[in-house]
Design brief:
Length: about 400
């Protein structure tokens, strides 16, 4: 007998039939003698619709009320699954974040989970009851409902697994596991049986949205055994494991892309010490995270161009912050380009091997794709290219690193 946390994403609970299928899967795990806690997302597309309602009401709005609205999608699925389980004769009840309580900090829209009360959940699990927990939501320090960022139900599930001391956290989704690249754009992507926490973290952070980045960081920190698998089949999924559990480490384990980047070039900014600090200061004050950065060599010694990327949904805010600081910065103009994509090659093997970067650059050059910005870490190389080349770049790199399924 084991204590398992099962998380089901939006497509896995998209309609009543899918929710019934989830109930049957949960019941099967209970019938095998396991204690099962379930964490659910909203039905596919619902959170987007709720967020659009809020923006249509007022583009700039109180984020506490945004959370009140967008958290409701999970309330619906949690209640429906509890009913479906009861129909199958399984004792179950729904739990909203505040009822547990699952406490977060007060950063509405992107709160961090701080503490989960598990005594009552343990007591009920021990009686054979299935807690059905609404993902993505919690309660902040001032008693308001918070949400923990898009895709956050993965993190709710891992946090709950850690707090309960669960044997495993199973993330059920609409693909059969973690692949060498997004199987929706790379038909030849291969399912990985195992991936290390480090690689999964890096892959998630550069755009592979199969797991929310914070959920992987949390699983790594608390050593929660994490499995990604499909709710549409019974095939084995991908285990996220420690590096020493992988016998034959590939040089490159995956290719990821992120379309939600935007590029800003500050043209002819004065080239003097402290310019980067002056430039990025107003952005960080506005809560804007700058990702890739490149500064050109100045040809006249007086001015230079600085190019960097921000999240696409922060582009306008970034431009406004820079324009507001214009007199201090003394730049000629700003050029914004939302039509870019960041493509990344990830692999723990690369820190001990040369040539990974040159293969990437040669492959893109061969396809006539211009690289606009480059950034690297120990186990990742990212390039910024024009968005129209996303598929071509990802597929060519997948082939170039020998990842294609044959
Ligand atoms: P859920 O609603 O279950 O949380 P998501 O849409 O958040 O599902 O994540 C699953 C999706 O992640 C897949 O449908 C797939 O298109 C995408 N994805 C991107 N990169 C990868 C990858 N390397 N492996 C698997 N899926 C990936
Ligand atoms: N429903 C939320 C979202 O769409 C949380 C999640 O599904 O993980 O972002
Ligand atoms: Mg998701």
């Amino acid at each position: 007998m084991a204590l398992i946390v099962q998380k089901f994403g939006g497509t896995s609970v998209a309609d009543l039939d899918r929710i019934r299928a989830v109930a049957a899967r949960v019941k099967a795990a209970v019938d095998e003698g396991n204690q099962v806690a379930v964490v659910l997302s909203a039905m596919a597309g619902i959170t987007d619709q709720l967020a659009a309602l809020v923006s249509d009401m007022a583009p700039i709005h109180d984020t506490r009320e945004y959370d009140t609205v967008v958290s409701t999608g999970e309330q619906v699925t949690a209640g429906l699954l509890a009913i479906a389980l009861q129909t199958l004769g399984v004792t179950a009840r729904s739990w909203l974040g505040w009822q547990i309580p699952l406490r977060t900090d007060g950063v509405h829209g992107g709160a961090r989970i701080e503490q989960i009360a598990v005594t009552e959940l343990h007591r009920r699990l021990g009686r054979g009851e299935v807690p059905v927990v609404a993902g993505f939501q919690g309660i902040g320090p001032l008693g308001r409902i918070t949400t923990i960022g898009r895709g956050g139900t993965d993190t709710t599930a891992v946090a709950l697994a850690a707090a309960l001391g669960a044997e495993r956290c199973d993330i059920y989704t609409d693909v059969e596991g973690v692949f060498t690249s997004d199987p929706r754009i790379v038909a030849k992507a291969r399912k990985l049986n195992k991936i290390t926490y480090e690689e999964m973290l890096e892959m998630a952070s550069v755009g592979a949205k199969v797991l929310q980045t914070r959920s992987v960081a949390m699983a790594m920190k608390h050593r929660v055994p994490l499995q990604v698998l499909s709710s549409f089949s019974d095939n084995p999924g991908t285990m996220v494991v420690d590096e020493d559990e992988i016998v034959e480490q590939e040089l490159v384990s995956g290719i990821a892309y992120a379309r939600d980047e935007a590029k800003i070039t500050v043209v002819k900014v004065a080239d003097r010490p402290g310019v980067a600090a002056t430039l990025f200061g107003p952005l960080s004050d506005a809560g804007i995270n700058v990702d890739m950065i490149v500064q050109n060599v100045s040809d006249d010694g007086k001015s230079t161009d600085i190019t960097f990327t921000v999240a696409q949904n922060q582009l306008e805010q970034s431009i406004a912050a820079l324009e507001a600081a214009r007199s201090k910065l003394e730049f000629e103009r700003l050029v914004a380009d939302p039509n870019v994509v960041k493509v990344s090659v990830i692999g723990v093997g690369m820190h001990s091997h040369a040539g990974v970067a040159s293969t990437m650059f040669a492959t893109l050059a061969d396809k006539g794709i211009n690289i606009q910005v480059i950034s690297t870490s120990e186990i990742k190389i990212s390039v910024l290219i024009a968005e129209e080349y996303t598929e071509l770049a990802v597929r060519s790199l997948h082939t170039a690193y020998g990842l294609d399924d044959d």
